[in-house]
Amino acid sequence: MMSMIIGEQNRPIKSTVLITGGSGLIGRYLTSLLLENGYNVSCLSRSGIKPGKINVYKWDPERGKIDPDAFKEVDFIVNLAGANIGERRWTNKRKAEIIKSRSGSLKFLHETITEMGIPLKAVISASAAGIYGSQTSERIFNEGDSPADDFLGNVCRLWEGAADLFNASGIRTVKIRTGVVLEKNDSALSKLMKPAKFGFLVQAGTGNQYMPWIHIEDLCKIYLKAITDSTMHGSYNAVAPQHIKHKEFMQCLASVMKAVLFPVPVPAAILKIGLGQMSDVILKGSRVSSEKLIDAGYNFRFGNLEEALRDVIFNHALK
């Protein structure tokens, strides 16, 4: 239950959550969930475009600009800002943009909070299961493992390092390491579903790579728990407890969509030619543990892939 603060006239005052990257996939769903649970929600946006019935404040981290009104009566910050990893090829320029949009914007946010003396209750920052690297193994990675020494591992290391600045300032900080988000309209899953309009789906590479996944509803409820649960600190893997390989994922998706799984997988070499280093996101993957999150008291609504896919494809929609 959300804690309330009693005002001067003995009326409950809603807690306010400021979201960076609120116009993105997770931000839109999370905004809806927070509003349903009685929170005031506002958003920091580079465009200033209003993503819904919330207050939107403009910021430009690259130029060091931000609307100071964004921090009025803010209790929590949820940081979801970051360039889309899978939007285009990882040229050196794009790699720099991906890193700067995450760690750079978060450092700027910390500097602003510090200078303004904003008394935050907590900062909840996005991270990714990619911190364990682009590799395929049977090892089960947990929050105690070191970041991998590859591009995704370094992105997440710098990202989380910027988040840790808030912790060093005495602000409770939680980092949510997210797997493949199941949502049908604007996600990695939606891209995997596209060939189904022609009646078939395709497997990438050997299919032996693991796909740590999570339903969009569970992910947003994990963020909500991180806000409300003052005992949560540090990193948490936001992935379903069921470990699934890519070929198993695609077989399940084909079954749910009543589509044919094309018998010949897309060769890894073809994907590497088309996507470059970014193909590692598709072709490699290891198992990731959700035990720390479960031990913290989170109960997954969707722990079974087939059930999660059926809900996402046929039932779930952004309100």
Overall mean confidence score, pLDDT: 90
Strand arrangement, major sheet: 6-5-4-3-7-8-10-14
Q: In total, how many domains does the architecture comprise?
A: 1
> Assembly type of the shown chains?
single chain
Main structural class: alpha/beta
What is the chain-wise order of helices and strands? EEEHEEEEHEEHEEHEEHEHEHHEHH
Biggest beta sheet attributes: 8 strands, mixed
- Give the proportion of residues in helices: 25-40%
Describe it:
The chain is an alpha/beta fold and 319 residues long. The chain has a single domain (5-315), classed as NAD(P)-binding Rossmann-like Domain (Rossmann fold). 36% of the residues lie in helices and 19% in strands. The strands form five sheets. An eight-stranded mixed sheet has the order 6-5-4-3-7-8-10-14, with helices on both faces. A hairpin with a 5-residue loop joins strand 1 (5-6) and strand 2. Helix 1 crosses helix 5, helix 2 (92-116) packs parallel to helix 3 and helix 6 (246-257) packs across helix 10. 41% of the residues are buried.
Main features:
36% helix, Rossmann fold, 10 helices, single chain, disordered N terminus, globular, alpha/beta, 8-stranded mixed beta sheet
List the helices and strands and how they pair.
Elements (H helix, E strand, L loop, with lengths): L4 E2 L5 E2 L2 E5 L4 H12 L3 E6 L9 E6 L4 E2 L9 E4 L12 H25 L5 E7 L11 E2 L9 H18 L3 E7 L1 E3 L5 H6 L6 E2 L11 E3 H13 L5 E5 L7 H12 L2 E2 L6 H8 L4 H4 L3 E2 L2 H5 L9 H11 L4
Parallel strand pairs: 3-4, 3-7, 4-5, 7-8, 8-10, 9-16, 10-14, 11-13, 12-15
Antiparallel strand pairs: 1-2, 5-6
